[in-house]
Design a protein that fits this description.
The chain is an alpha/beta fold. It has helices at about 20-30, 40-55, 70-80, 105-135, 155-175, 195-205, 210-220, 230-240, and strands at about 10, 35-40, 60-65, 90, 135-145, 180-185, 255. α1 (about 20-30) packs across α8 (about 230-240), α4 packs parallel to α5 (about 155-175) and α6 packs across α7.
């Protein structure tokens, strides 16, 4: 299916690895001009080189910025303003980790909020007006099923993901009667680079093979219908559809790509 993304410009935050990189890849394959973002210059450059190699002739550029830092975010805003804004914003950047509620400090909470919530607030605030003026545009938040069913050992992460669902729903109400949409994708347990690295460390500490640990982690999520980890490309496919003109009737929605982990009907 042609998603009709030729000629569009898409900013994908946190796109040097994992779901973000998968999203950037599928958008580049569909003809979008993709802006890759990450905190580290070298990793951004490497991601851009890889995407250009995977999609010869594709338009890919990079911008290194820590979106939790106001000065670096201001630099990104200036660069985006110079090019006239963007057509697609994918708020993917996120911080996750295991934290006991009692051990998570105010600084820990502040970092989760800055990265997971406020980066999307600030980028959306800066870019949504231009989209509304042009009468077209897409904003997608890459969320998590943990924002609906908050894990006891990931409360700061889950709370901030719940907040992004609410944010996207509220922003969608500002787009009434326009060609702009705002939606959220609720991803399930995904075998991203970060998860794989964390699992490798745990497996080494426990003296078990990574695949054995991987199977044990899946088994812990007893409600999973998929019975395996989700691949980042599977999340990216849904994101790509939502940012395309073909998803024009989907707005203010939280769509699940959770492998059936959530047990509710909606």
């Amino acid at each position: 299916m042609d998603l009709r993304l030729d000629g569009t410009t898409a900013l994908v935050t946190g796109s040097t690895q994992g779901i973000g990189r998968a999203v950037a890849s599928v958008l580049a394959a569909e003809g979008a001009h993709v802006i890759v973002n990450g905190r580290d210059e070298a990793r951004v450059a490497a991601a851009v080189d890889r995407l250009r190699a995977d999609h010869p002739g594709g338009a890919v550029e990079g911008f290194a910025a820590d979106l939790a830092e106001p000065a670096e975010l201001a630099r990104l805003f200036d660069a985006l303003d110079d090019r006239g804004g963007v057509d697609v914003l994918v708020n993917n950047v996120g911080l996750f980790g295991l934290d006991t509620f009692g051990s998570a400090t105010d600084d820990d909470w502040a970092r989760y909020l800055e990265v997971n919530l406020m980066s999307g607030v600030r980028l959306s605030r800066h870019l949504l007006g231009g989209m509304l003026d042009r009468g077209r545009g897409r904003i997608v938040f890459v969320g998590s099923e943990s924002g609906v069913d908050v894990p006891a050992d990931m409360i700061p992460y889950g709370v901030t993901k719940a907040a992004t669902i609410a944010l996207a729903n509220g922003l969608a109400k500002l787009t009434r009667g326009t060609g702009v949409t705002v939606n959220t994708v609720l991803g399930g347990p995904t075998w991203s680079d970060g998860v794989a690295a964390a699992a490798a460390g745990v497996a080494t500490a426990q003296g078990v093979p990574v695949e054995q640990l991987k199977e044990a982690l899946v088994a812990r999520r007893g409600t999973s219908l998929l019975q395996r980890f989700i691949d980042p490309d599977e999340i990216a496919s849904l994101v790509a559809y939502l940012v395309s003109p073909r998803a024009s009737a989907t707005n203010g929605a939280a769509l699940r790509a959770d492998g059936g982990v959530l047990t509710g009907m909606l």
